[in-house]
Amino acid sequence: MSERAWSFSDSMAEAVEKAGSPVELTRDLGVGQFTKVPDEITNWIEEQRSWRESVAFADQSYHMTDHYVEGPDALDLYKDFAVNSFENTEPGKAKQLVVANPNGNYIGDAIWFHLEEDKFLSVGSRPAHNWLQYQIETGDYDVDGHIQGRPVQTGDDPNNFRFQVQGPEAIKVMEEAVDDEIPDLGFFNFGDISIDGVDAKLLRHGMAGEPGFEFWGDYEDSEKVKEAVMEAGEEYDIKHLGAEAYQTPNAILGWIPLVVPAIFEEGMEDYLEWLDVGDGLLSIGGSFDSDDITDYYFTPVELGYGHIINFDHDFVGAEALEDEVEDPDRKKVTLEWDEDDMVDIFASLFREGETYQYMDFPHPRSAACPYDEVLKDGEHIGVSTDKSYIYNEREFLSLAVIDTEYAEPGTEVTLVWGDPEDNDNKRVERHAQKEVTATVANAPYSEDKR
């Protein structure tokens, strides 16, 4: 798409019509600013080492959307549209919220918090929140809902600071940072704490397979809380993660942060008319190139959410997922990229002739939703998505969804690195594509110590 025919004042439906197709709308748009946090605070290698060797501090306040939902029908809303069970929820519980479209294809996910009896908050990327807010505004639910957009995009201050500490020393740091004792929380439960006189909520959490906590409170208190936690962590060699290091644990955690939401399908026309393109647009990049937007879709099962799908309620997409969950065609895996091929990508910059696409370490990304083609014996078997170099593993890793028959760890596959020649992404230079050998590994990649 050499010239943009649509504008950000359009609905998604209008933008698709002007662009010609969903793929033409979303391909080669590049990637926007991720967060207000600098790319590096110290340097990304030391920051990566901290979650394995000491403790890492992350500021999550700017890059996610918040969806506030309140009312007597709120749980009914979630039961109708989320794959999760809500039978045993109560205030203080959290879970990974996942929503699908009527055909069982994945729309989005978020971390969901049961705040009070009829009051809820979910935090994450926008697709799941858009879909739920549409149901609130057009459905028959006694519920109020409000989305706070990504603060880095809107320019507004967040409602809450949202911080995280992870690593083998994380518990000791929080024991020193909180004013009283840490509440006795089970995994993915949250409770009340105070840090330097500031009231906050504390979630027992984990990142990169290491133990830790997430905590949040009024944004106006953010600097005071951050200073108190960093001071408590000084003797444990705490490191503040920059934006680049913060994004890399996904590769070992097994979580794919963004994919194309399955919203461009028959039956979704009214939703696309309701949805502003600026609120719902995610860019596509990478070597996989199809004119059919549905080729970019996944199901919750393929993304590794099969274990949280519960058929104790009749949710949108349940029938399609019930057929798939026992015998999926594709599976999420980790891919280890061959070190000699990786060296060759960089070595091409020092040789005469064509170079391979530049790979910016530790988290190369030229689109919100990267899709690189994965082959076996020259045949398409799936796509590779988010990728990162992990210093602690001395590996370059990506998360992929591939045909189940090739998902056995140790299987050798081929990955195509480099966008198609006719791409218009201003973040991508002229280059030659390269086939990279990769080895299938488990997802999650590392031992879970959370």
TrEMBL record:
<dbReference type="InterPro" id="IPR028896">
    <property type="entry name" value="GcvT/YgfZ/DmdA"/>
</dbReference>
<keyword id="KW-0808">Transferase</keyword>
<dbReference type="InterPro" id="IPR006222">
    <property type="entry name" value="GCVT_N"/>
</dbReference>
<feature type="domain" description="GCVT N-terminal">
    <location>
        <begin position="42"/>
        <end position="248"/>
    </location>
</feature>
<feature type="compositionally biased region" description="Basic and acidic residues">
    <location>
        <begin position="423"/>
        <end position="434"/>
    </location>
</feature>
<protein>
    <submittedName>
        <fullName>Aminomethyl transferase family protein</fullName>
    </submittedName>
</protein>
<dbReference type="InterPro" id="IPR027266">
    <property type="entry name" value="TrmE/GcvT-like"/>
</dbReference>
<feature type="region of interest" description="Disordered">
    <location>
        <begin position="417"/>
        <end position="450"/>
    </location>
</feature>
<feature type="binding site">
    <location>
        <position position="214"/>
    </location>
    <ligand>
        <name>substrate</name>
    </ligand>
</feature>
<dbReference type="GO" id="GO:0016740">
    <property type="term" value="F:transferase activity"/>
</dbReference>
<dbReference type="Pfam" id="PF01571">
    <property type="entry name" value="GCV_T"/>
</dbReference>
